[in-house]
Amino acid sequence: xxxxxxxxxxxxxxxxxxxxxxxxxxxxxxxxxxxxxxxxxxxxxxxxxxxxxxxxxxxxxxxxxxxxxxxxxxxxxxxxxxxxxxxxxxxxxxxxxxxxxxxxxxxxxxxxxxxxxxxxxxxxxxxxxxxxxxxxxxxxxxxxxxxxxxxxxxxxxxxxxxxxxxxxxxxxxxxxxxxxxxxxxxxxxxxxxxxxxxxxxxxxxxxxxxxxxxxxxxxxxxxxxxxxxxxxxxxxxxxxxxxxxxxxxxxxxxxxxxxxxxxxxxxxxxxxxxxxxxxxxxxxxxxxxxxxxxxxxxxxxxxxxxxxxxxxxxxxxxxxxxxxxxxxxxxxxxxxxxxxxxxxxxxxxxxxxxxxxxxxxxxxxxxxxxxxxxxxxxxxxxxxxxxxxxxxxxxxxxxxxxxxxxxxxxxxxxxxxxxxxxxxxxxxxxxxxxxxxxxxxxxxxxxxxxxxxxxxxxxxxxxxxxxxxxxxxxxxxxxxxxxxxxxxxxxxxxxxxxxxxxxxxxxxxxxxxxxxxxxxxxxxxxxxxxxxxxxxxxxxxxxxxxxxxxxxxxx
Length: 555
Fold this sequence. Notes:
Strand content: 5-15%
Oligomer: single chain
Largest sheet: 3 strands, parallel
Radius of gyration: 23 Å
Number of strands: 19
Structural class: alpha+beta
Distance between the termini: 22 Å
Shape: globular
C-alpha cells in the first residue's frame, strides 16, 4: 500500500482514552464489551494487585517464506508470558479454554508454551508497572491509554526493549502489515520499541439524533440537510421544546461538542478538521492547524469557540443537564431513553455499530468526515505490544506477536471472540455472532476486536457492514500521513510539570467539556487557562516545540 505523504500543515490525531479521549466518545465503546466477572490474575501468583514504503498496510499472507513456520524454534519448548489488557475482568474458567486453544496453535507452529494473563483496565494501570519494577516474568505486554502504561510513559521510564533486530528476524508479517512508515510511530532515533495495533486508522465525527424525536418536532428534513451548526441548534431547540431532551455527553469526561480527533471549528461543517496531538498521552497539547506549532489546545481559539458553543447550548437547555456528572457513555444514555442524540467520533465503517449501540433509529451526519483525517503517531500508540526490558524471551515474544499478525493462525478471532461454537459462531454472511441461547450477558468469553494485533484479520461482529474490513483497508490505503508521524513528545524531566497540568485539567474538564459552568463562560474559562499557566504549561509547550523542531530537522 502506498501512503501519501502530506507536506502541508493540516494535521490529524487520535486522542487516547484517558483524559480527553473524553473529548468525544468512548474509543472502546464501539466494540462489544466484556461481561465476565473474575480476573484470572487474582489467582495467578505471578502478579499482585498492590513508514514511507510500498508495503505499508499489506495484509499477512502466511506464505512459507514469511509465515510462522519459517521462524519456529526447535528443540526444547520455550515458555512465554504474555500480558493482555481487557475491557473488563475475564472469568478464569472461560479463559482457560482460550489459553489452551492458543497453546495448541503456538506449540504446533512455534514449539512454544504461552502463559496468558488477562488484566482489566483498572488493574493494568497499577499491576503491570509493578511487575516490571519487580522483575517478574513478562515477555510481551501491551501499551495502553492507561496513564502509567502509555507508550510514552514506558519509553520515558526506559522500560521498553529495543526490538529492531528481533523484529527484522522474527516479525515478517508485522513488517509487511505496518511497513516502515507506521513503525516509525513506535520508534526513536531509528530504533523500534513497540508495535502499534493495526486497524482502521482514519476517523470521522458522528452526529446522531433520534429520528422519532426529530419527527415529532418536525425537524427531520432540516437535520438531514443541515450544513451549519446554527441549523443543528435550531433543530435541537425544537426537539428540546417538544420533548425536553438534549444532546448527551459522549463519555464519562462530560464531552459534548469536542469529539476528538475531530474539531467542529467554525460555523459550517466544512470548517471542521482533525488535529495531530503529536503523540501526547496527556491529551492537552496539539499542533496548531494553521502554523504547525505546538500549543496547549485549550489556548487555541478554535477549541475555545467550540467550548463556548457548548456552554451556550447548555444554557439554552440543549445539553443533558447531568452531562458533567454522568458515569455512563452517550450510547448507554441514549439506549436508556436519556437524551436526543450525541456527537462523537467513529472509525471508518463504524457507523452501524454506533447506531446499534444507541438503540434507536438515528439520523446520522458526518460534520467532519474521514477525508479531513490522516494517520498520525497517536493512531498507533494508543494500543499495541511491547517487550519490557526485563523480558527473558524477546525472540519468542516477537514470534508470538508475528503469529498474532498472521491471519491464517486464527489467533485474532480466538483472543477477540473466544471459542468458536461456545462463545461465537460464523453466520451465513461470514460475520461473528453469539450462538443460539448465548447473549452478551451470559457469554463465557468475549473481548473486542481492536485490542490484539491486526484488527483487519479478525472476523467482524454482526451488525457491522459485511464489507467493513475491505472498507477499512481501502480507507487506510487512501489516507494521508501526517508529516509528524513518528514524533512522540518526550516527558523525561518534565513529569512533575505534566502532572500539575494534568491535575488542572482533571479539575475543570467535566464542567468545561459539558458547558455546565455556573458562572460566565469567559470568566470561568480564563480561570482554567490561568491555572494551566500557573502549573507550568508554557514550559511544556516550549520543551515540546524544541523537541519537534529537532525532530523535523532530522527527518
